[in-house]
Amino acid sequence: MIKVGIVGGTGYTGVELLRLLAGHPEVEVTVITSRAEEGVRVDELYPNLRGHYDLAFSTPKACELAQCDAVFFATPHGVAQGMMAELLAFNTRVIDLSADFRIKDIDTWEAWYNQSHGCPELVAEAVYGLPEVNRQAIRTARLVACAGCYPTSVQLGLIPLLEKGLVDPSRLIANAASGVSGAGRGSSVDNLCAEVADSFKAYGVKGHRHLPEIKQGLSEAAGGEVGLTFVPHLLPMIRGIHATLYSELQVEGVDLQALFEERYRDEPFVDVLPAGSHPQTRYVKGTNMCRIAVHQPQGEKTAVVLSVIDNLCKGASGQAVQCLNIMFGLPETAGLNSIAAMP
Amino acid sequence: MIKVGIVGGTGYTGVELLRLLAGHPEVEVTVITSRAEEGVRVDELYPNLRGHYDLAFSTPKACELAQCDAVFFATPHGVAQGMMAELLAFNTRVIDLSADFRIKDIDTWEAWYNQSHGCPELVAEAVYGLPEVNRQAIRTARLVACAGCYPTSVQLGLIPLLEKGLVDPSRLIANAASGVSGAGRGSSVDNLCAEVADSFKAYGVKGHRHLPEIKQGLSEAAGGEVGLTFVPHLLPMIRGIHATLYSELQVEGVDLQALFEERYRDEPFVDVLPAGSHPQTRYVKGTNMCRIAVHQPQGEKTAVVLSVIDNLCKGASGQAVQCLNIMFGLPETAGLNSIAAMP
Amino acid sequence: MIKVGIVGGTGYTGVELLRLLAGHPEVEVTVITSRAEEGVRVDELYPNLRGHYDLAFSTPKACELAQCDAVFFATPHGVAQGMMAELLAFNTRVIDLSADFRIKDIDTWEAWYNQSHGCPELVAEAVYGLPEVNRQAIRTARLVACAGCYPTSVQLGLIPLLEKGLVDPSRLIANAASGVSGAGRGSSVDNLCAEVADSFKAYGVKGHRHLPEIKQGLSEAAGGEVGLTFVPHLLPMIRGIHATLYSELQVEGVDLQALFEERYRDEPFVDVLPAGSHPQTRYVKGTNMCRIAVHQPQGEKTAVVLSVIDNLCKGASGQAVQCLNIMFGLPETAGLNSIAAMP
Amino acid sequence: MIKVGIVGGTGYTGVELLRLLAGHPEVEVTVITSRAEEGVRVDELYPNLRGHYDLAFSTPKACELAQCDAVFFATPHGVAQGMMAELLAFNTRVIDLSADFRIKDIDTWEAWYNQSHGCPELVAEAVYGLPEVNRQAIRTARLVACAGCYPTSVQLGLIPLLEKGLVDPSRLIANAASGVSGAGRGSSVDNLCAEVADSFKAYGVKGHRHLPEIKQGLSEAAGGEVGLTFVPHLLPMIRGIHATLYSELQVEGVDLQALFEERYRDEPFVDVLPAGSHPQTRYVKGTNMCRIAVHQPQGEKTAVVLSVIDNLCKGASGQAVQCLNIMFGLPETAGLNSIAAMP
């Protein structure tokens, strides 16, 4: 059994890790930390876990975490930076769900996250945790920086087009919508049920922190800088991201359906739906799947890609477990076999 | 025009007062206070009000509030107590939406609200603001303590039975469910959309603060102490209270439908639905109506009353406006004519 | 009092007309028709209307409808066509909420609606019911074909840019999302609560019937053909449309905020929010308002306009009442003064 | 591998069976029937199943179903009756999720279901499928009639009290609320999202078909006839039942918490929460668990039991799989190990 620790286990990505790992045949969670809830049993805070864990939150200590084969950081940005060097020195491998090590350009990171980076020397080494792009590098990585939720849904939808140079990389549009769990478990008036449960809005149009992350990934796929307008929206529901992606075809007569099917043929967690489909977020809820459809409305030059994921699963904790499986040579789908419930 | 002030205008009952009073032909809101939002325009915080108010929040000052003919307190419990004596001394009439002056027995209030009462000398004078019971006293009251949300829905459903002595007063059950706006606009993890938007639960089964208020009202109707089990539940929606009320008939052959129709014949805001109906909370959303149905399943001895209100309207701000209308001799429905939107 | 009739009153736009007209000081609803519900009282089907109407559904007869000064068609497409010539011959003025007379090119209509047009001779005369564009023509129209829901939200958001030639008209993108009431009151598995209440999807990407209607309106504003990709989405909520509109600026240094404020300065139902705002559908729920914000993310060449309406109100019945007010010389806001409830 | 067939696989309990059985280590679904969807792949109708089944719906034929070791009926009431005798004659064991064989008194069944019973001769043999009561009989049953959704939640909450004679059996109250998936996948105006997604109501107060089923089970537990008032309510959400159960204690000084813990100590799917808890429907969503809390408010004589299940899982398909496991000597939790997702 692989021993894992979770730092910051009280948040939504923490409890999602616990849910997924409870069913993982090769993993045992041995430490879970939270300063605020020290001593509280995890199944007291999350009664859905009753019967599955006999574990309480503890204060994070590097020496204890270092007993683990792998440590997940399910923390807000800024936290993993502070402990990373120490942990890696113990030969513990780290999977960071936060944004701390995702962006290669440190100035960009500091500008968007509005603080100095606490561990710039490890940024270059960190492997961006999007297995469909970086599987090989993830295998041997000491530090994986898991892709964010919007970035996963947008990149998986656009990279087949960009890798082949089929669309104009200077005018990409990513219109995405997320369930409110994406905002995390922090108390806030803005995310009260009474504020958001019966309404819909765009937010962060001026600039959202996932913009530079997405641009970095798309630029790699395109082999050069891309122009991207990214507008996130808040859905009156809990889980799910739906990305509607617009790009302008610069080549005629391409079979987009075949292109996508070919690109993702061997991917266990990317499912290209039949031509003409409209993926629904509920098709992937609670699972690590990304389901994608590609359209070319009226046969005109705009390609429209629809991509859905569960923001807490393929957009966070599921992706982290997928990376763990890759890092430790386990079957990539271990612990990730559940099926979305419909209805 | 009657000049009114609102203390604590940033909460949900505050903005609901603003919405209702914007359409009131005889009232002008001249002061609205909030320490936290001093200087902020009300339509900046609540853009639904754009075009209807040219007003900003100010810090509450008794001398300014005293310029008003009437002042609403839309504050958490404990606030109105502190300013009440001073305001009344200015001859301003006060309509308190909070729980401060609802309970006549001060020890009971202090036990349930877990603090000393700051103004016990005015409790006896305060008139309980449930017009269907106290219309006459409200007319001349200096201080009206508006009935709470659950208490309104439960009392309107049970008093016809208790006033006539038709049911056993010792075994009353009030099973009620409220939308999450009843919890107010305070930031809290428990009321995040991600926590409550797709679930249902009972809460406060051990004892909810509305229990003594309801028992006080029902005991008056029954002419003696009542036994009541009250279980509130939290609905995954924003507005609306539904009370399902069980009592045991101790008289045979009563025409319950006729009884309820007769009791509320002249009430502008209580609508007894046709026999066999099931009121839905959406029938009253955004309005000051209480809609009621009464059943006697299988003709057996349990009477089941179903009663719905909008917790923020008939359960709070609408009731407050109704009281204002009564106090100032205005048509009782002024400003309260809107119709629930369906769907 | 102006006497009005409503054909097809059992659907969602029908009951919304009843709600709005109940509060209209100059209008009396004298006839409401439904074949399926003949003889049923409107307040039996819609208990929210109890106390406001003493009216039952009747089978539609032209001779009775002709007694009205104006008749609303709140019917599915294909119905108004059949009665239009006869009604107009009686000098009754007609406001059609359906799609029957919106599209000027009859071949286009027939292709998208997949049937022959039943009254092509009146299409040219029909005035497209979008007051912000056609107010003058509406005044004297015999037949107003009210703008659809998506078309209203999209056109109001894009025409200020197109009228001034500021954006490339060949690459417009309208990404819109609607509450499920837009699908109407027909029974359908696809719109069951269990199917859509906790999910989000695009639909009709291949081509939605509102596409030709929107293109027609935008082309008029642009003074020439436009290229438009329109992707509608289904929101897990009941009311509200949010349009996110992307266009490419071809002129530098324009003050978009000033442009929009100027364009809509005198419009009672279009509200340009302060710079940097994100309109929420709840800001307009139950009202005839369209609230708009305009952004230019990172100062780059893509303009992003956000536009919200209530699909049943400004997107249907409210717009119809607004047109009625214009046609009969009433204050344009009569019956349309309500304020959205928050929360 | 045990071969199973599913009759009526397009409904919500059918797809839930498919979801659960996809993860069952000892079961293979070999036949799934639907007249309406003959030839359609199950993963076309339910894309959440993509990658898990290579199966299409077929027309039900007894000879093909008879090849299975067990057959589930996931049909509306009235269907299983017609095929039951023939199937049992083939020595296929049957698990009926419908109401056809639940009620022992045939007159009662016919009165409540308003039709003649098509197979009265097998009613006596049928074993009521509530493992916590009938595990022994289920083991060897040829025909299991699974307990209904409300009946499961209510019986599990009340039988510990009734079995011990602690409460007055003549005045039981079951106030229950269900998500809308309980109404099934039939098209209906009443269950449209626009009708129910933002409202709450009681229904069937006059008498719901689950009433005689519940009374039958409670009477067995009590050892004599019970008096029960049962009021179901419709929640604005998809999955979950919450029962709030009121009964009058006739014995003093009982430790209710200990009683419940003792009664369910060895039950894998009944979890008695710590004293003072309030179970939430989300604690059990997608799982076969029933979580229960018991209260005695203010120490008075009314016991209040709170019981939550997932109506499609422990209330239908999960319970059916649990019965299958018992019938075939498999581990009782096989295929039923998933954990509810929070949030």
Calculate Rg of chain A over CA atoms: 19 Å
The biggest beta sheet of chain A is recorded as:
7 strands, mixed
Number of strands of chain A: 13
Strand content of chain A: 15-25%
Q: Regarding CATH, which class of the largest domain in chain A?
A: Alpha Beta
Shape of chain A: globular
Number of helices, counting only DSSP H or I runs of 4 residues or more of chain A: 11
Q: Give the quaternary arrangement of the chains.
A: homotetramer
Structural class of chain A: alpha/beta
CATH superfamily of the largest domain in chain A: Dihydrodipicolinate Reductase, domain 2
In short:
Chain A is an alpha/beta fold and 343 residues long.
Q: Keywords, please?
A:
homotetramer; 343 residues; Rossmann fold; Dihydrodipicolinate Reductase, domain 2; 7-stranded mixed sheet; 11 helices; 13 strands
